[in-house]
Model the fold of this input.
Amino acid sequence: MPAFIVFFGPPGCGKGTQAKKVTEELGLVQVSTGELFRKHLGEKTPLGIKAQEYMSQGALVPDEITIGMVRERLQQPDCQSGVIFDGFPRTGDQAKALDALLSELGGKLNMVIDFALDMNISRARLMGRQEGRADDKPEVIEKRLNDHAKVEASVMPHYNAQPGLVRSVDADRAIDAIYQDVMALVKSTLA
Done:
């Protein structure tokens, strides 16, 4: 049975970096809704066209479109080894829909790894990024931090209500120290 794990945490906590390292080492698949949106938009799929209609109006893409993209991705053969969700789910409804989808596919969510990081440290990391990303401007950073607080308030009650599902990792450490803890947690779900 494949492992299904959610990596959760504020912007700048390193969850994407950790997801990449873990998936490369263990042969799991990293599923990022941002990448799914870009793929569907680029390939002009029916789901991508629907998503574009909402995005072009500055509206949030409805959950059923996002879930449709995730469903399609999970049905690909490479996902049989297991999946790390990065940046998904973003609402309580998406969390419930993910549970239903995994159940439908004969699986279940094994773990949520919460990358714990103080918002002030998150802000400082984002301000200090070397990539110079377009979304690393101060006003955009504040919006991303506020958005994360809303996501956390929506998603985490659903997961915290399931005893033993959420495991917290201190994300205010060196990448390798975090990686050792994350690998131990992920490997425990694969045993």
Notes: The chain has one domain: 3-35+79-186. The two ends are 11 Å apart (CA to CA).
